[in-house]
Amino acid sequence: MSKSSVEVYLHTYDVLPSDPLPTLFDFPHQYVPDPWAQTAAELLQELIPKTFAHDFNTLGKMFGVLVVNTPFGIKFLAGFSGKIDESTQFPGFVPPIYDTLNQEAFFKQGERALNKLTRRINDLTNGEPLREILTEKSQYELHAQAQITALKNSIKIKKGLRDALRRAPNLSVEVEGQLANESKQEQLILKTLKKEIQVRLEQINAKISVIQDEIAVLKLKRTNQSIALQQELFKAYRLQNFAGETSTVHDVFTAFNGEIPPAGTGECALPKLLHFAALNQLKPICFAEFWWGLSPIGEIRKHGHFYPACRAKCEPILGFMLKGITMAKNPVLSTLITAPLKILYEDDYLIVINKPSGLLSVPGRSDLDSAEDRLALREVKGAYIKAIHRLDMGTSGVMMFAKSPEILTAMQMQFAKNRVTKTYEALLDGIPKELEGIITLPLRLNLAHRPHQMVCFEHGKKTHTGYNVLEFKNKITRIEFYPKTGRSHQLRMHAAHPLGLNCAILGDELYGIAKDRLYLHAKSIQCWHPVYEGVITLKCPTPF
């Protein structure tokens, strides 16, 4: 790309920030924007309404800035995730890594083929032929049932007459035989009618099956073509990093976890910005991503707030793209707890600890330490230690472990049946409208943005969180939560979501703003001891 064409995408500071330039690039999945990035973001926010006709109050978008060192001085690049109003290219915003909207390229051609299949499927599913056959079946079933009911009523009446004749004192053998024969003939007629109805229904169902089989074949074809198209697309996304290497999204994910990349991988703001910088020998200094406009339904995105790069789509490719750049360490690694675990209670069946913030509950995909691992190390080799429930890495407080499979099953059954009383204490970033109440927003995993959860009234799992505000000061609220269910991120979502308290838990890097820790603490658990058969109450003072 020529010098002049590169300069088209470089934005200039009105006034350079007084802070020194950072020496390390931000860890993308947990960071606090540097003043250079914050200033760039503020300048970009002034540019957004001048560039886009899109109504961001209807649906917002994630934007990003990348501060870069260039031959023309310190500048910044601007980008956004995905597309806006069916367009991926706008003046002053870096182009996509691969333009999926190019009408002549393979992706749009593949999309048109998929759309053609979808139209055919919809035509068959909602078309007149299938509708007529289904109506015919419904009407015939009603008619057939009426025939059977009428015949059965007739048989019942005739049976009553025969029974009366059979009670006559001088009934001859010949008449009794005639009555028995009449009964057999009536049952034969009923059986024949049912068989005729069954044959007719099988004929109608055969017609339905022809259409439904065609629909099933088309759906399978569409699925296979869609998978193939996505695979081809991920091979077309050629990534450039700062070590001079190139790879595809497909190959990066294969090397990272062997999995197929989620839909939309490579379209987020930061990968687009880094790719453009690498292609044009611009050195990244720092970045920031922020949400602009209305949050998607069910998710938590606050207008103007900064957010980390997603993990599901971006973690593997950013790991590749940032090679050659000196990057800050994962903040989680700097907060790892090395002090011995504090045991709150222990007997031959249970161990209860005060899990510190910053320690995983159980082993995960990473090599990070966990509470379960530590407890296992203190036991005889091969001893059984399993977490009965889990706390998020940032959450501290009471956590229970079982010393046998039987105890694990018994205790988990108590949790599953909501027979365990739990109390959490937290600090909220803001003041909720109500001082006490119950939140029941249903939750499910946001498949496009793991590990985030989202509110979903159609497919979400039921939840129940009671709460009571203890105090508030300087726009910080101290609150107790009483969850009856234990869904992933339940308290964090119920606190942060606009339909909940609309106040994120302080330090929540996923749904709020990162701090030195997540200010959420499991302060007490009350349950039934599975062996001693008595109520036990386990408490742990809140450390903040």
Identify the notable features of this structure and list them briefly:
extended, four-stranded antiparallel sheet, alpha+beta, 12 helices, 544 residues, Pseudouridine synthase, ten-stranded mixed sheet
Shape: extended
Top CATH class of the largest domain = Alpha Beta
Strand content: 15-25%
Task: Measure the end-to-end span.
Answer: 54 Å
The count of DSSP E runs of length 2 or more, i.e. the number of strands, is: 18
The major sheet is characterized as: 10 strands, mixed
User: What is the mean pLDDT?
Assistant: 92
- How many helices does DSSP assign? 12
Helix and strand sequence: HHEEHHHEEHHEEHHEEHEEHEEEEEEHEE
What is the CATH topology classification name of the largest domain? Pseudouridine synthase
Oligomer category: single chain
Give the count of structural domains.
3
* Low-confidence spans: none
Give the CATH architecture of the largest domain: 2-Layer Sandwich
The CATH homologous superfamily of the largest domain is called: Pseudouridine synthase
Supply Rg. Answer: 33 Å
Class computed from helices, strands and strand pairing: alpha+beta
